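SUBJECT: A protein chain and its fold
Encoding: whole-number codes for local backbone shapes
RECORD BEGINS BELOW THIS LINE
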Amino acid sequence: MVTLKTKTQSKKYPRISDTSWKTIKYSDITVFYLHELDGGALDFGEEAFVNTVRELYGSVDNLCEFCCGPGFIGFSLLARGLCKKLSLVDINPDAIACCKKTITENSLKDRVTIHLSDGLSAVGNLEVWDLVISNPPHFDGTRKMYENDIIAIDPDWIIHDKFYRDVPRHLSKKGQVLFLENVTGAPEDMWKRMIEKNGLKFIKTFWEKQPTQKYVKRTFNIISLLSWGSIKRFIATCIKQKNTNFLFRRVYPYYFVQAKK
């Protein structure tokens, strides 16, 4: 089994000074986080999942956020009544420390569990979920790239592959997976092969819905972060998939991948 390592302060919960904490409030839950641990959920991930989960599933009993970071998405779904219990999984002790702080400060110990885990390897088999959501690393890269940027890089797609291999034992009878991916990192058809290879049933991919004014604002934010090589890959992928309407009219690159047991 391939083991990924992270550059973190400690294998245990790191000590973080009170002046480092930032907060955001979702309904009655105040989420504590560190600026460097935001993988995009503050801008697009949280809102995208709230709207999509509400439309597709309504409310579920047990939900897991994989590669959770500070848990922006999971806590926001919990705060809005879209799940009754929440599990949070991440390999980074700093991210787990943020989740632990949020749980303590909001008295959520009875509703939220956390797992410091490389993939799902440290999650006990008794953990069973109706829905697993994630805004995972969106880009392939080398091990060195991963060590320097664990939020963005999934080396050789190891994180995704191990997840799809291990998640079936944690899904309820009608359990599903809903990941947010980026077309500049991977084409839609790649996930179907990976999902089916690991014994799950691929349902579909679909583009995230965003109001026009948010496309304009977020497109500029995204383009400013992309290299020219990433932009060229994005354009080539759209042309290959004959997705020219998306290329010229909807340049927001995020899409959902849906799978089930």
